[in-house]
UniProtKB/TrEMBL annotation:
Keyword Transmembrane appears in the UniProt entry: no
Pfam families hit by this protein: TPP_enzyme_C, TPP_enzyme_M, TPP_enzyme_N
Name of the molecule in the record: Thiamine pyrophosphate-binding protein
Family per record: Belongs to the TPP enzyme family.
Native source species: Paenibacillus illinoisensis
Domain Thiamine pyrophosphate enzyme central: 192-325
Keyword vocabulary terms for this entry: Thiamine pyrophosphate
InterPro entries reported for this sequence: DHS-like_NAD/FAD-binding_dom, THDP-binding, Thiamin_PyroP_enz_cen_dom, Thiamin_PyroP_enz_TPP-bd_dom, TPP-bd_CS, TPP_enz, TPP_enzyme_TPP-bd
Taxon lineage: Bacteria, Bacillati, Bacillota, Bacilli, Bacillales
Domain Thiamine pyrophosphate enzyme TPP-binding: 380-524
Domain Thiamine pyrophosphate enzyme N-terminal TPP-binding: 3-107
Highest taxon above the source species: Bacteria
């Protein structure tokens, strides 16, 4: 006889999970202690939201299940933001929350998770792909099997189980858990309709979204572009799908993009969209009269396919990598058309400023880091500066969420990724606003010897909000930090090595020293407050 907590821990171990992230409390104690007993390393975070981001970073880095847990009540509600972030980014994360014993339902309790106060099973439903309260031990196997089949299935994403204290400790004679096996998923009939559309197109364009990075379909993207000699642009979240200097790459489009990529958007007659929802962050500069005649959209989620543009749409459902491999495998005798080679320099000049320009730092940052690194970028002006200026050399090494766009997510994700890949250089670019939200998580990295390099861009304001409000309303209410933070002193207080840079030379020296230290390091980068971020296209009219 084993407890439900035993079966949960055994299953996670069989799935290859090595680390779990969360904050322990009474109602989740039995499950967490069994995870530790079964050899999983427990990394306690400083805030439950960060533990969810850490699990997401772990899932992204490994391709396996990430696990985040919290106690009942507010511990669980603090995980909700991270759950929605994982859903927006198609990351397989199992969120586990505690719950008072079923036998005690109806008794008012501290940190209640029942329908009498904060019904976590209900709250997690819109933020995940599946959420359920496990009311009995003999229901656990069925519900865990179902949750895993969804999290690791065709449309990967987060799931949630709420485990009452007495259910975790309930003894079961047996509990059969089936580990899901991936299966190829291709849309054969629609794939066969692609070639005629390509042959008729005069100006085809590949729009590579973050789905390319999530599916690890970088080689397939390259093969497709080279086979048909089609130019490639990237969405903000798709940055890094292709190396920055490939002859067929024409730069990022939309918010954080370059004008040249947006020009291609407006003149193409066929879009081949790989793993993008075509959100406002991507097509903000596309004019309504320039929607392409045809659209081929590879997307496992049909929610927005064919609904955004006035184009005749061919939907390719299923796994992006599997579909591209099938398509390319059936084009062995195809003669590519002669198209004009890319001789366009899509970059624009760097700004000239009296103080340190963030764009100038990002323009050279990849040359200061080893080839094998991953850069996690937080949301804000600094993120879109990175989308525009950072020169990705290794496809898939740039991680940025422009869709749910949760400030502070990159801090936790970088820590989770480092736990999964201790030998890889992991760097996080965050802002002073993000850092004041979840910067205490630096202490988690310090305590568990996870040497991430954090670059904190400090311009003493909520820059993206300030510049956007200033342009659209002429006002900047609530966007200035009257007492700016000292990020380097805060980092020192959390146990990290700290540096402060106000010039290009100081930053170069600090980054070199941080890499040599091989410990958690925070580089505070004080940049020019008046630098204009590449987000000005996306404005709101409040009149």
């Amino acid at each position: 006889m084993k407890t439900v907590a035993d079966y949960l821990a055994e299953t996670l171990h069989k799935l290859g999970v090595t680390h779990v992230f969360g904050i322990i409390g009474k109602s989740i104690c039995p499950a967490v202690l069994k995870m530790v007993d079964h050899g999983l390393e427990f990394i306690p975070s400083r805030h439950e939201s960060s533990s969810g981001f850490e699990a997401a970073g772990y899932a992204l880095q490994t391709g396996r299940l990430g696990v985040a847990f919290a106690t009942s009540g507010p511990g669980g509600t603090n995980l909700l933001t991270a759950a929605a972030h994982a859903k927006a980014n198609n990351l397989p994360v199992l969120f586990i929350t505690g719950h008072q014993s079923i036998q005690e339902l109806g008794i008012p309790q501290c940190q209640d998770s029942s329908s009498y106060l904060a019904d976590l099973a209900e709250m997690f439903r819109p933020a995940t792909l599946f959420s359920k309260l496990v009311e009995r031990g003999d229901h656990f196997g069925t519900l865990l099997n179902h949750a895993l089949s969804i999290a690791l299935g065709p449309n990967k994403g987060p799931v949630h189980l709420c485990l009452p204290f007495d259910v975790q400790t309930e003894l079961l004679a047996e509990c059969r858990i089936v580990v899901p096996e991936p299966e190829p998923r291709i849309s054969i009939s629609n794939l066969n309709r692609i070639l005629p559309l390509l042959q008729k197109s005069s100006y085809p364009l590949i729009i590579a979204g973050k789905g390319v990075n999530r599916a690890r379909a970088h080689d397939e993207l390259l093969h497709l572009a080279e086979q048909f000699q089609i130019p490639v642009i990237t969405t903000p979240g798709g940055k890094g799908a292709i190396a920055w200097d490939h002859p067929l790459y024409h730069g990022p489009c939309g918010v954080g993009g370059f004008p040249h990529a947006d020009e291609l958007l407006n003149r193409s007659d066929l879009y081949i969209v790989l793993g993008s929802r075509l959100s406002d962050m991507t097509i903000c500069n596309l004019k309504p009269e320039n929607h392409p005649a045809h659209l081929i959209q590879f997307d496992s989620d049909p929610a927005f396919v064919g609904k955004i543009l006035d184009s005749q749409t061919l939907h390719i459902t299923g796994d992006l990598k599997d579909n591209l491999q099938f398509l390319l495998g059936n084009l062995t005798e195809y003669e590519p058309p002669e198209r004009e080679p890319n001789t366009v320099d899509y970059m624009v000049p760097l700004p000239t400023l009296p103080n340190l320009s963030l764009a100038s730092i990002l323009d050279e940052l990849s040359d200061m880091l080893p080839y094998d690194h991953t850069l996690f970028v937080d949301d804000g002006s600094h993120g879109f500066h990175a989308v525009q200026r950072y020169k990705v050399k290794k496809p898939g090494s740039f991680v940025f969420d422009a869709y749910f766009a949760c400030m502070g997510n990159a801090i936790g994700m970088a820590i989770g990724a480092k736990a999964a890949a201790p030998d890889e250089t992991i760097v996080c670019i965050t802002g002073d606003g993000c850092f004041m939200m979840l910067g205490a998580e630096i202490n988690t990295a310090v305590c568990h010897n996870l040497p991430v390099i954090f670059i904190v861009v400090n311009n003493k304001q909520l820059d993206m909000a300030l510049k956007g409000m200033q342009k659209t309303t002429g006002r900047i209410d609530g966007t200035l930090f009257e007492v700016p933070m000292d990020a380097s002193k805060f980092a020192e207080a959390l146990g990290a090595a700290a540096f402060r840079a106000e010039t290009h030379g100081e930053f170069t020296a600090a980054l070199k020293a941080a890499q040599e230290l091989k410990q958690v390091a925070v580089i505070e980068l004080l940049t020019d407050r008046d630098e204009i971020p590449p987000t000005a296209h996306r404005t709101v009219n409040l009149n």
